[in-house]
């Protein structure tokens, strides 16, 4: 237990008003350390500062992606369900798959990330669709 040295400590007021007053004395960089970016073409902040310099994500091979999909499904399915999934994947690979894969490759040529827009759509849908549950 610390001994009282007889010196009165400065009492710090802990309120929202005192916090606002105190932080106003900070420099802009101290208040918003992620707000600046060195590249005019990059998105603001540290996270995306080098985004334009990164290599693009490659589009995975369609057949290997389908194999990985089936491998991921297998422990979650009965034998009958898995055979149905295998048939659906085979059908996809022989019909719509190659055309959709080519469309994805064409789309990707003008994008920094071929998957970013799709992820944003999926995650925003999840957030919106589950927000009313409470």
Structure write-up:
The two termini are 47 Å apart. This protein has two domains: 11-53, no CATH class; 55-134, Choline/Carnitine o-acyltransferase (Fumarase C, Chain B, domain 1, Orthogonal Bundle). It contains six helices and no strands. It has helices at residues 16-24, 28-31, 62-73, 79-94, 96-108, 116-131. Helix 3 packs antiparallel against helix 4. The chain has 134 residues and is an all-alpha fold. The longest helix has 16 residues, at 79-94.
Draw up the topology in text.
Elements: H1 16-24, H2 28-31, H3 62-73, H4 79-94, H5 96-108, H6 116-131
Helix pairs in contact: 3-4
Pick out its properties.
single chain, 134 residues, mainly alpha, Fumarase C, Chain B, domain 1, 2 domains, 6 helices, elongated
| Uncertain stretches of 5 or more adjacent residues | 128-134
The separation of the N and C termini measures 47 Å
Shape: elongated
Profile the largest sheet.
none
Number of helices: 6
The succession of helices and strands, N to C, reads: HHHHHH
Please compute the radius of gyration using only Cα atoms: 27 Å
Give the % helix. Answer: 40-55%
CATH topology of the largest domain, which one? Answer: Fumarase C, Chain B, domain 1
The structural class is: mainly alpha
pLDDT averaged over residues:
76
Binned strand content? under 5%
Tally of domains: 2
Give a short overview.
The protein is mainly α and 134 residues long.
